[in-house]
């Protein structure tokens, strides 16, 4: 009996599954394949080949029981085939320590500081000093965060073409400079740490509040970032900023269950049911922040300060109990330590709660001419909230509508339009 081809609806459903699985698994696939081919650009192409194979086979044969492992197996098999075809295969074979039939990763030195994780190893590799800071972050977000070019552009507040050029040039540089897929040690590791922390934080943020799409949260990105932060914290126990980042992500992740409603809609901080906050993650955050304090030798760094702000929220069992004056003070310290328009915008929110919407509106109005915030939807969103609290509802409605037009996340757009309608009433 001849099997019937899948219907259009069934094929579309499987294709959606393929794309979802690939988005979740592509960082691991790229990291694993890079160990074989030692070239992140080629590894990404082979991962894409595996995606094409899944799009061809899964609608016909069905989705495998372990789709991530299926994609990894296809990508690694093609990676080994590629290595076999190279003229210098014998030399390459000796370098990576495998035989023709084996695809297992090469053995690494048994140093206690080895990074026993492909994803973290890839983070350090793509944060090599031969790349600019912007290129390091863009490339790592692309390869490990699974973010698209538009999403990265949104995170950076820069044009998409700029991000695309950074990624292409970064992969070309790593290839032409023959940068090894390696475990960095000593001063080399220290030199890359700042970029690694920034990358992990940006990956978490994209999962915590997605810049585009139909979902407000992308938990898999948050989980990857949190896992990387914990690994890095164990790897570098004497670095306060590493512990600060880990603490910050633990605190932020603790709110996940309360940040969306029954239909997946965003729930604002003041409306969240704090009994749904994960107290185990909060306890982990408190411990990590304590480790940051005990290892600090000078003034706290940006991630330690942000973790301290998050701790203020975590310690408050209700929104009304929040120590807003302390948060405003911490934001002032953060603005002095790592000044940026986004930090100032966040400081304005804290000031509005500590001192009232009037002083906060002055801070926000001073940011309206900042080029980096021209397309940043949270600027008109915050301004709309302050205007609404001041009773200037017509202006507030216009700001919420402008914010809704700027965001590319459907859930967030719905929330902003609802707030605009409330102003109209």
The H-and-E topology, N to C, reads as: HHHHHHHHHEHHHHHHHHHEH
Number of helices: 19
How many DSSP E strands?
2
- How far from one another are the termini? 64 Å
Describe this structure in words.
- By secondary structure, this protein is mainly α.
- It contains 19 helices and two strands.
- The chain has helices spanning 8-37, 40-61, 67-85, 89-96, 118-126, 133-143, 149-156, 160-176, 186-208, 219-235, 240-253, 279-295, 302-315, 324-337, 341-354, 357-365, 378-389, 393-406, 410-424, and strands at residues 212-213, 408-409.
- Helix 1 (8-37) packs across helix 5 (118-126).
Which tags fit this structure?
single chain; 425 residues; mainly alpha; two-stranded parallel ribbon; 19 helices; 2 strands
What's the gist of this structure?
Helix content is 68%, strand content 1%. With 425 residues, it is an all-alpha fold.
Write the layout of secondary structure elements.
Elements: H1 8-37, H2 40-61, H3 67-85, H4 89-96, H5 118-126, H6 133-143, H7 149-156, H8 160-176, H9 186-208, E1 212-213, H10 219-235, H11 240-253, H12 279-295, H13 302-315, H14 324-337, H15 341-354, H16 357-365, H17 378-389, H18 393-406, E2 408-409, H19 410-424
Parallel strand pairs: 1-2
Helix pairs in contact: 1-2, 1-3, 1-5, 2-3, 6-8, 6-9, 7-8, 9-10, 9-11, 10-11, 11-12, 11-13, 12-13, 13-14, 14-15, 15-16, 16-17, 17-18, 18-19
